[in-house]
Amino acid sequence: MTMVDNGVNVQALLDARQALKGAPEAAQFTWRASAKWQNGVHSTTTVSNFFGLGQEHAHKSDAVFDADHPEVFAAEDNGITPIEYLLVGLASCLTAGVASVAQNRGIQLRSVESTVEGQHDIRGILGVDSDVRNGFNDIKVTFKIDADASEQDIEALVAQSQKRSAVFDALTNPTNVTVEVA
Amino acid sequence: MGAGHAGLAASHFLTERSIDHVVLERGEVANSWRYERWESLRLLTPNWQSRLPGHRYEGPDPDGYMTVGEVIEFIGRFATVSRAPIRTGTNVTSVTAVDDGYQVTTGRGEIRCRAVVIASGACNQPAVPQIRHAVPESVEQLTPFDYHSPAKLPDGGVLVVGASATGVQLAAELRRSGRPVVLSVGEHVRLPRTYRGRDVLWWMDASGVWDQRYDQVDDLTRARRLPSPQLVGTPERSTLDLNALAATGVELVGRWAAVRDGHALFSGGLRNVFSLADLKLKRLLDTFDEWARTHGHDAEVDPPERLAPTRMPESTRLQVDLRSGEIRTIVWATGFRPDYGWLDVPVVDAKGQLRHDGGVVDSPGLYALGLPVLRRRKSTFIHGIEDDAREVIAHLTRYLRVRH
């Protein structure tokens, strides 16, 4: 078999899978973000640390994300809208999945591009019609993949990536969410 | 333990090797076929494939599929001709390891033996997810063990959960009875009933897919957890996939993820489980075609076919209000699990599965038969038991000889 290098250390992931089989408590992660209001609908959200493998970890550096609304919403557009972050999360999660699955299946990737479109009826969030949901009605991700593989194998890559995607699951399945005032 | 096809096959090979044994059966021969199956059920395998060691179907319809009554008769006849030493009505309440063997406690007394073969089946109890507790009381809940026929259900809508062979068959039957049916679909295995003019199980058999050994399967844990394929045995030999169901008006929704405020919430990932099943089907059909080409069978079968992809409904509901009266009954076709409550030997893992290597259980002298992909992909099918039983009993024989 030809050596495939998509830059994913699949062996480490497979080793982790094996190690966690007997240690479910180590697999419990808590991801965190903290947000701070700036002005108007503009906020900044910082991601710096998380808990996992039984201990606290810090990212190499803090990541700061601006969220705002566009000018058509009479805002200042200091950042993308919160719901766009879901699309960023979905696209990046699926892309990571494609690379990992490709590495594991011995498929050399040359390029992976995707566009994500979320259909959103804003009458929900504006309270125009209570039958309209607040979130996306429909999300479509379109991948363009150049790789040493048949069309069928590429389709299987993308399908498997969805099957293992945290963000795909979080968007398609309900999750308990508690919001409270500290 | 167990006088179904697996226990009787074990008995056949034990007799052949002149090893003293008894077959303990909680009820009657083929007990689960008698009491734990719905009325319209037929085997997924064609009659010509119904074979047990030294015993095969000899009726007039080799391409047909046995009814439950015929299966009971078939296994019963095997029990008679093989003269298996069966003790019916003998419920095993515990098995413990003792010096040089096992102590078996039954409703009819104690038995000491040097080896035990567990052939009590893989489907002793329905596996129903925890969300059943969140379902409003106004909705009746059934498992395939309680389900007999549509006539026994309350009028009104039915939510069938699970799209394995059981789920699709019950959804089709309930829909035919005139009820609105919603089918909640998670990962599933799609198969056509016939391919290139032959039963799809002929292809599985002939091309060697079914003989694939457990130690050659890529991901054995996954293979053992695979849901049964979407197949039904009917006189018309028709395909019962999700397209066929949707065409009769069954509404497809995603995997049932939760109940919130009396609403069933379904996954929005339906399209992906469709494409996974379609991709796997296509890969399997490619394997068949490749086998036919390289083994010179192309001329004797019809030309290659490709099935239309599973059609995504125009819109799918992500929730259904369980308090509205739309759904009167839920049928949980979410699989089965074996029951090892009586087994006082530490060989069952945290998920309730027996730890074994090809039927050789992780305790000397303890064996299993009739579990999914026990030694081959065909292990749980009636015709799949012969090779497994021969090998497992050969191992048991060596074990007894060494210990003696």
From TrEMBL, chain A:
It comes from the Bacteria. Gene3D superfamilies: 3.30.300.20. Pfam families: OsmC (PF02566). This is Osmotically inducible protein C. The lineage of its organism: Bacteria, Bacillati, Actinomycetota, Actinomycetes, Micromonosporales.
